[in-house]
Amino acid sequence: MSADGTDPMVPVLQALSGHSVQVRLRSGEQLIGQLGAVSAGSCELQTQAGVMTVRNSAVDVVVPVRTPPQPHAV
To answer: How far apart are CA 28 and CA 7, in angstroms?
Structure first.
């Protein structure tokens, strides 16, 4: 927690909202999906299995994932 009581991951998560990301939790678990709504306490991650709610305090690292470029039809 930062001095003002907000989780330091919040601005990072908000900046990546709507992007495909890889999230590593403090437990060591890794999740890949599209980051959705981010609030002060948690964020939503759309994964293959469905929408997960992840506590911001549980997030260790979040990294944007580049989606492979789609081949263009000629």
So the answer is: 19
End-to-end CA distance of the chain: 52
Q: What is the pLDDT along the chain (74 residues), one digit of tens a residue?
A: 555 566 888 999 999 999 999 999 999 999 999 999 999 999 999 999 999 999 999 999 999 998 666 666 66
Alpha-carbon gap, residue 36 to 18, rounded angstroms: 6
Contacts of 19 (CB under 8 A, 6+ apart): 34, 35, 64, 65
Report the alpha-carbon distance of residue 59 to residue 25 in Å, rounded.
Answer: 4
**Distance set, CA 18 to CA 27, 28, 52 (Å):** 24, 23, 14
